[in-house]
Amino acid sequence: MSVTRRRKILLGLLIPTLLLAVWQWFFRPYAWRPDPDAACRIEFAQLRRDRDYHWLDLRLEVTEPGRFRIDENLALLTASAREIKPAGLTLEGAGSADLDPGAPALAATEALALRFWMEPGDFDGPLQLRINGASLHVRRGSEAPSLEDGETEIHRTCRW
After folding, report:
1. Is 105 domain-assigned?
2. pLDDT value at 6 more than 70
3. Which residues contact 7 (CB under 8 A, 6 or more apart)?
């Protein structure tokens, strides 16, 4: 086999592999068909082990600023129907200085970060985020995460 032919074969394998890698990291959605009523979508989830517990950080992008609201029903729902309220909430964008749920400035929010304190039993099934009167898939898996104390994982899809 000639050197030119080998290069063509290598190039033919390399280009699709690079395209797939770029799609995986930059364009693949966290969840297919998120609930449009949520007016936002999850970009990624970060899980960090803290002794026997976990911190779950969610980064959400606001897709419809005019319809986006934060109300008292904002919670993470576990498979055992336990509701976990956020331990932290950060808004990004022009509306980030105003945390009043009914304020018009919230319409200028571009993204938000949510932080949840998770107990070991909270990972016994799927997780849902209730926001803006809708539900978003956070996690579809049902196994406990296998992280060492202080270790962090970033998930760019809800299949973990």
Report:
1. yes
2. yes
3. none
